[in-house]
Amino acid sequence: MHPELEKMKKEDNIFTIPLAGLPFGHTDYQYVIDDKFFEERDYSEVKKGVVNLHLGVEKMETMFVLTLKFDGKVVLQCDRCGDDYEQALANSAEVYLKYGAEKGDEDEDVIIITKNDSEFDLSDLIYEYIILSLPIHRTHDDESLCNQEVLAKLHNFSQSEAENEEEEETPWKQMMKDLKNRIDK
User: Fold this and answer.
1) 61: CB partners within 8 A, 6+ apart
2) I need a labelling partner for 70 at 20 to 30 A (CA). Which of 3, 89, 115, 161 fits?
3) Residue 76: strand, helix, or coil
4) What is the number of alpha carbons within 13 Å of residue 15 lying toward its C-beta?
């Protein structure tokens, strides 16, 4: 990569922490993750939000312990009606950066770094933990907050599907009728 582009990339990313110059012991960082952070990820299901992140970094001889504490709100699409709604989130995680021969993930909470790494980009890690903080079922807290017009259409559709299913002559139903007719004769 061209040195000027590399310099610009580093300056733009506030979520990069220094590893080489960090003193031994504990260091705290505060971040505000906002709409810009989510918009930079084309694949993100979260497009808006404000999440406060407290990051504690404990530097030791052979590793770093990162303690992440999230608290905030994001905007998601409701699974029930499709409208946007605000979802509160709070989560914490502990991740270990350990020195090794090659970069990689040892397990879900251990990341291998090399002695040549002078900094660590937290962006993907932050995004992962925010997404893991979200509920599986993403709906308004109360169904009355959902788009009632959409819910009415869904209700009508499911009723017509049920009626069609009752009227539909399946091979199984036909076989049962034939068997009943044979028994009745």
Assistant:
1) 24
2) 115
3) strand
4) 18
Please say whether the beta carbons of 71 and 130 come within 8 A: no
Instruction: Count the Cβ atoms, other than its own, within 10 Å of residue 77.
Output: 15
The structure tokens listed for 183 are: 């028994």
| pLDDT tens sequence across 97-128 | 998 877 665 677 899 988 888 999 999 999 99
Q: How far is CA 105 from the centre of its chain?
A: 19
Q: Tell me: the pLDDT tens digits for 41-63?
A: 888 889 899 999 999 999 999 89
User: What's the per-residue H, E or C state across 4-61?
Assistant: HHHHHHHHHCCCEEECCCCCCEEEEEEEEECHHHHHCCCCCCCCEEEEEEEEEEEECC
Paired strand residues for 68: 55, 93
CA–CA distance, 20 with 11 (Å, rounded to integer): 17
- Cα–Cα distance measured from residue 95 to residue 87, given in angstroms and rounded to the nearest whole number: 25
